[in-house]
Specification:
single chain, 283 residues, disordered N terminus, two-stranded antiparallel ribbon, mainly alpha, two-stranded parallel sheet, Ferritin, elongated
Length: 283
């Protein structure tokens, strides 16, 4: 059975109710919807502050809001000057290249002659870490128009490709890296390096003497393990001093981060070598 049919009286009542509701919603004296006034105010602020997204004279930036949302203001970030490289940065990179090269030479001198697997693994890690760091420092020096020790070529750095100016005094230390197979040649190369590098590198902390390198080249068996750890520990301790000096006096960000990395890396390896020395001493 069909439902009730709306009578004219029922339809009329419904129409009057809708009319009343519409009149109430559109009354001219009602307050504006919430947010309308603030949107108008921020529009005025935009005009006073300049173009959206651009700082005004007070350093304030107006950020337009999404549809239906108010604009917001932000203080523009101050410009930060990027520190330029100074003499301490350049000196650290040049010195550490030569310092790393001697560490690689010591690794070469004992290659295939270390008897303890953990000591041999440590030597491999030192080579894997320091050879790329030499390349990084050489590239950094070239980018800053600073001379690069010619001996960096011992670690595979192509100075000609970098367009780098070679340091003439570095050629003497380079001889030692080429002849790491014998203690005498290593002795001679490092003797030249210490004597000819203008006094600055002669006093680099932790550097092994020519006599110590000759003894390392002649050592065999467990004696080679112990001597390598002893010389490399002293070498790393010198590296900590050099990295600390850079962080105190240097300025350029890239080389400062590298110095911090060298410090952390070599400090950890010093602890590892101390553990190995303790274990080997108990044999």
């Amino acid at each position: 059975m069909a439902g009730p049919v709306a009578t004219p009286r029922r339809l009329l009542g419904t129409g009057l109710l809708c009319t009343a509701l519409l009149a109430g919603c559109s009354g001219g004296d009602d307050p504006a919807p919430e947010g309308a006034g603030s949107a108008a105010g921020t529009t005025g602020e935009a005009a006073a502050s300049g173009s959206p997204g651009e700082p005004d004279s007070s350093g304030t930036v107006l950020q337009p809001g999404r549809p239906g949302e108010a604009n917001t203001t932000h203080t523009a970030a101050p410009e930060v000057a990027v520190p330029e490289a100074n003499e301490a940065d350049v000196r650290f990179a040049q010195d550490m290249i030569l310092h790393h090269l001697q560490a690689l030479e010591m690794v070469d001198l004992v290659e295939g002659r270390l008897t303890d697997p953990q000591v041999a693994a440590l030597a491999d890690r030192i080579r894997a870490a320091q050879a790329p760091e030499i390349d990084t420092m050489a590239r950094w020096l070239a980018q800053h128009d600073a001379p690069v020790p010619e001996a960096a070529e011992q670690a595979g750095v192509d100075l000609a490709e970098l367009g780098a100016e070679p340091m003439a005094h570095g050629s003497d230390s380079g001889d030692s890296g080429d002849s790491g197979d014998s203690g005498d040649s290593g002795d001679s190369g490092h003797g030249d390096h210490h004597g000819d590098h203008g006094g600055g590198h002669a006093e680099m902390p932790g550097m092994a003497t020519p006599e110590q390198l000759a003894d390392l080249a002649a050592a065999e068996g467990a004696a080679a393990d112990r001597m390598f750890l002893e010389l490399m520990t002293a070498h790393h301790e010198g590296g900590l001093v050099m990295a600390s000096e850079q962080t105190e006096s240097g300025a350029e960000l890239v080389i400062s981060e590298l110095a911090l990395g060298v410090y952390a890396e070599q400090q950890a390896e010093i602890g590892r070598m101390a553990d190995l020395q303790e274990r080997l001493a108990g044999r």
